[in-house]
Known about the structure:
Largest sheet: 2 strands, antiparallel
Number of strands: 2
Radius of gyration: 56 Å
Family: Belongs to the DOP1 family.
Pfam families: Dopey_N (PF04118), TPR_DOP1 (PF24601), TPR_DOP1_M (PF24597)
Helix content: 55-70%
Domain DOP1 N-terminal: 40-350
Subcellular location: Golgi apparatus membrane
Strand order of the largest sheet: 1-2
Keywords: Golgi apparatus, Membrane, Protein transport, Transport
Amino acid sequence: MSLDAAGAVRSASPASSGRSSPVPRSRRAVEDVTGLYKADKSLRRYAALIERALSTWETSPQEWADYIAFLGRLLKAIQSQPKETPFLPHTATVTSKLAQCLNPALPSGVHQKAIEVYAYISATFSHEYLSAHLHEYLPGLASVFSFASLSVRPALYPLFEDHILALPSLDLRPALKSLLLALLPAIEEETSEDFDRAYGNVDSLERKFTHYGSDGYFWQCFFLCVITSPSRRQGALNYMVRKLPRFASKSQDDSVDVPDEISAEAEAATSPEPGLLVRCFVAGLSDAQMLVQRGFLDLLVTHLPIHSPILQSKAEKVDLERLVSAALLVLLRRDMSLNKRLWTWLLGPEPKDENVTDHSSAAGSEASPQAKYFQAFSWAALKNSVSAMFETDVQRPADLARPFRICLSLMDRWEISQILVPEFFMRSLHCLHAYSARASSAQVSEVLRSANLFFDGVEAHLMWATFFELLQGTGDSSSDALSRLGLFEWVLEHFSVKDEEMLTTHIPLCTFYLLDIITGRQSSVQSEAVRQAALRISARLLNLLPSRVFKLPDLANDDRSSPAGGQMRAAIEEHYRTPQSTNSKARAPCRSSDVGRGLLARIAQLTSAFLREQDVVCLDMSAHLLSSALSKIQAPFLTEIQQLIDTIDSELHSSDKQQSGLPFSAITCIVSLCTSLLGKSLITLQDLQNLEPRITAQILLFVSPLRSKYHVEATRLIWQLDDLLAPSDAIKVSLVGNLRSANTSRDNKGNASGHDSAVKRFAIIWAHSVPSGPHGATSRRGSATPTASDPARLARRLDVLSEPLLLVLDTLIGAAPSEADFVKHWLSGIAGLDRVFTILLRRIEGLMLVSKRGPELRDELQCLRETTYLLEIVRGVLCAGGEWPWNCLTMLEMESRSGEGESGAVFVAKCASDILSHRTSHSLDLEESALRLLNSFLNSPIRHDLGDLDLEACLIERLLIAVEQQQDALHVHLLQLIPTAIKLRLDMQKSDMVDDRNIRSPSGSKQPSTVRPKPESSQTNLAPSLLPPPLLLQCVRVGLTSKAAHFHYDQWLEFLNKILPTFADSIFASLLPLVESLCGAIGQ
């Protein structure tokens, strides 16, 4: 291996030792190597031998025996040096190979052989040579003590003691740190056999550099070793325990007044400044091993107490705070032995006087020696250290959770917690609140786990006194007030405030105080955001309170009177300004009942103010707040409640007078307030009935096709009002009045635009109030709104809507076609049409029952008029359009006279038949309505369902009577209707015959149909001769011979033209009497 190549090899330094130690420029070489090589032939031969020995290394040896063989050859070559040779040729290459032979992975035999070569070189060549080349020899030896076996150390100690450490201090100065790093591993084990010898080596090295007037270079390098090399800290700690000067004053350690006097050794150790000393302890306290931390804490207590002048005056404040921060981090280990040492360092030694009371009894005493010591020496640095932890712009959740855990541990000592918590409680919440705005929820949750533990450890009175200070600036409209409320609301959301003392004392007081601030300030001073935030917080606080809070006995105030309403706020302020003893329960400044009444009064005042200002957001919040308060507080009659009722009345009256509507949210709040006040009997039913017409009128303004988003809630408000006023018909009267007033109001052209709007409003209310029946729901989709499902509630709604419904349906029979178009369109698609028919048919049924009992029970004419009116409405609904009304009426089930169920169509047809059969009171208008209704039925899609009612017999009988009584109007109607009824009857008979033939058919391939087929005219040849109704011929003969028929012969002839072909086969025997009657009529 060439000399140049060998010289290019870098020297290996121990871990964390920095760069290779510099060599003094004045001692780089003993002589000119080039000149000696040229002048001395023996020296050239010696250099060649060493180079030849080095060349055998060509590649790294594979076995440990190869290393020993190489070292033997190298030693033999070195031993062949000429006499008085001043240096070793190829020194750089030799030291490089020797360092590689000291690899920790090699066996101890290789290490012994390498040290033997080191020892021979050190003993053979002069100290001048070793000093000049120390930077080449030392890197290989620096780390040997960290792994040297017991067989290696006996040879290693003489090498250091006799040669390296024997060098002058001026030569060792550049390598002092490396030497310390090399020797410190040897003193890690205090119980080892060679501890004293290793300790003596370090001590001798200190004596070389430490003397009177020294610059403290040894301790500065020693502190750097501790700072930069964690693996050397245990050995350094063992040496510092024995040799580190004490930096405490010569006076007593527990004295508060400490003179700035320290020993000369301590002065030298901190020269030129104590920054490295502080950083040395910071590194030790931050070590990952608990034993190292414990040792450095012991050193702090014994050698560097916090009252030391080094820390209090000579060290910079930043260094002291850095040291305190490192000491506080020890608390995170939650180890009692470490904490005990930290308390001693921060609070000073324990009092030696046995008569001194413990902390539980002296918690409030300012004369405690440890409390005075802490405030004098430790508090300032601790405050700044914890502040820095909270104020640092942290990114990781663990970094922010750390100060909360530290503060929780510091609260174990009352001397610290009594001034720590007031200082950092709100500051920590500010910091966490700011962090939550930029971090994710998972990160915030991680920090909250530690913050909640700290929060729960704070005494309740102190906590709420801090919150009280936070609320004192909320009466302004500034952003600071909004940020204060935002912080308080965030705290209530994320921390638990359900302690018994908080619920019974602090939360009611703070709620009252916050509401009193908002009530006392003018609205122009407060911003809307501030008011909303205050109301949200008040609602959250009130929701936390159980109702028992305002029913508790006022034991705290049994010996003094509660302040008046105006003085309650001042009493609360005084209560939180006065510090409370931690051992005594806080006395509430006001009775719980007075606080409850004050809350109700302030909320009522705010609600009245918001209603007058029409601030709908705050009004909604205050209305909910008042409802919640009324549910928990036994409220007597308050003037503020009556003022609220008067404000509601005046605002409704003003809106009606100005013909303008209140905001919908305001109407919702008014109804909610009426519900709450009526539930607590704070408003009479009569007052509510007086308010109802104006409230309903305001609600109906939002039941408009143009305001579809309010339909559901507006309908809900109407029924909420009805529930409050039931069984009164106030809502029914208001709805009817709205329809009637709209019906009378017309525009300049005479169009009933107001009526159309009122009908549309009713249609919307119906759609969101009444569900479809069991049949109608399958054919039409109703409102998506959950309607009344309780039968009793549904019956109530139908009763309320019945009268307005009749007014709407009246449009079908009494209004112009243009006005009835919307009603027809509504009926053709309404999902609850079966409910409409139910209302109409039940009324018809009741009227017919009343009319049968006689006129003594009710005015007969009025009863007949109502029945006529209802029949016309039924006909108008059925003719509204399409098959949907007819199908709905057919699927509707009514109870018959015999108690069996029958369809609604059959029920209506029977009622009309009864009217025509004179089983009810006589009225031509009623009978005409019944005939028109039957005519609609007989021409409807459901006419085949009426085939079993024998309508033709009833009609023929009524025609005979009409001819005899000369009732011309009925005469003509009946002549037109009877052929249709007879044809329906005959079609049903033919259909039955076809069904019988199909049943008797021998073919079994086809299943008989369960649906009755509609007869066609082509099937008439299938039926035998059919008999006419019994009274038909008699009626015809009487009609043709009567004088009344003279004016209606054309109708009679048309009637015969329809009847005779129908009974062509069976009427032949009766033709002679008919011809005779006809001839007689012609003769007349």
